[in-house]
Amino acid sequence: MSTPPPSQPFARPLSAPSLGRPATRRVRAGFIPLIDAAVLIAAAEMGFAEREGVTLDLVRDVSWANIRDRLAFRQFDVAHMLSPMPVAAQLGLGMNAFPTVAPMALGLGGNAITLSTALFRQIEAGLEAPAPEGSPAYAAGLRRVVEARRQAGAPPLVFAVVYPFSSHNYEFRFWMGQGGVDPDRDVTMTVVPPPLMADALASGSIDGFCVNAPWNMLAVESGVGRIVAVKADIWPASPEKVLGMRPDWIEANRDTALRLVVALEAAARWCDAPDNRADLSALMAEPRHLGTSADVVQRLLAGRIAIDPAGLERSIPGYLAFHRGAATFPWISQGLWVYSQMLRWGQAERRAGDEARVRAAFRCDLYREALGSADLPLHDERVEGALDAPADEPSTGAPITMPPDRFADGVPFDPAEIDAYVAHFDIRRRDGAEGAGTPD
């Protein structure tokens, strides 16, 4: 494998550990076998963590509930984590909502919605004309299938996501809402761990799922599923995975936490370089990491998505991003968008003080402290989903080129207008206009 470039040093000396208590340098990190664990895996295996004086011990797990619990019970020091999980924890939502924060993101992209082959064919048969990959026509077609099943007295379709508080849940619901399907009334939503999604689809236990790579493409190539939408079709900038930490661990090991952020930022830069894709693919494919084909991983890293078992592909530039476009920056505005979806779907109620708690979930201050001399966004928040084309984001140095991030419905999210944003969904739902695909 190629040798990684030197990591960026700290902009200032690290604070010394407390007298009589040596700094912790060994860090135990939990991860789920997904391609977006690449930054953690590369940091551990390619020497980035070691260069910062950190020994990163990786522990593969199977479910996000396990990740949540093992971090809370101190079996893990840090974890590969769904971006909504720290938000939910700050709000006290879900089981074992132990305080968790995210000092950095681990990348964007990789999610896709996959339906069973049988359901896909039902939808396709009802289309008036062939629709391109990612077209909202498939969501509208799902509505027609749902209505036909209801009239026939058939049980509701069953769709799976990886965790209730996940970008997968909100993206799948967003996509269904655009087509006029109410995920709380028209279908049954359940939770399945990522590595078991394709098997659940093959067994007929579920009719579709939303999960990160590589499990969507493996379902397609095995002939049991078809991808109908990817994250880029719904919201390209949807926050995906973050580095989860307990606030008490940060307080006791601040020096190590900051060093780890530096190591992971350097690893993210390495993971994003096209010249490193072959090495990264081989590393990720190992049984202790993903245990899948290196060819599948390399195609996904290049944005080549299989859409049928015969080998037809869809090209999606930027399908996975680890560093470019400020992909590691923990935008507070993205945490607030997650909060808006929790409000939209009844997972949370609007309470005094909750917005401040959400803002505390994504720790831009720690990210800036660790990477103080880098080119970082000037602000912690921005209007999300407003870019139709690449645009420069002001930074502490050279401008950062941000990719297009338009929402599927064309309605931007202003973090200063959360209530109005949530209300626009309520109006569309009440008027039956969710499938319109245009702003009200």
What does this structure look like?
This protein has 440 residues and is an alpha/beta fold. It folds into 2 domains: 204 residues, D-Maltodextrin-Binding Protein, domain 2; 119 residues, Periplasmic binding protein-like II (D-Maltodextrin-Binding Protein, domain 2), CATH 3.40.190. 38% of the residues lie in helices and 14% in strands. It has a 5-stranded mixed sheet, with helices on both faces. It has a 4-stranded mixed sheet with strand order 2-1-3-10, sandwiched between helices. A two-stranded antiparallel sheet has the order 4-13. The N terminus and C terminus are likely disordered.
Which helices and strands appear, and what pairs or packs with what?
Layout: E1 26-31, H1 38-45, H2 48-51, E2 55-60, H3 64-72, E3 78-82, H4 84-91, E4 108-109, E5 112-116, H5 117-125, H6 137-152, E6 158-161, H7 167-178, E7 188-191, H8 197-203, E8 208-211, H9 215-221, E9 225-230, H10 231-234, E10 241-245, H11 247-252, H12 254-272, H13 277-285, H14 294-301, E11 304-306, E12 313-315, E13 320-321, H15 332-344, H16 354-359, H17 364-370, E14 391-393, E15 400-402, H18 418-431
Parallel strand pairs: 1-2, 1-3, 6-7, 6-8
Antiparallel strand pairs: 3-10, 4-13, 5-8, 5-9, 11-12, 14-15
Helix pairs in contact: 1-12, 5-6, 6-7, 8-9, 12-17, 13-14, 15-18
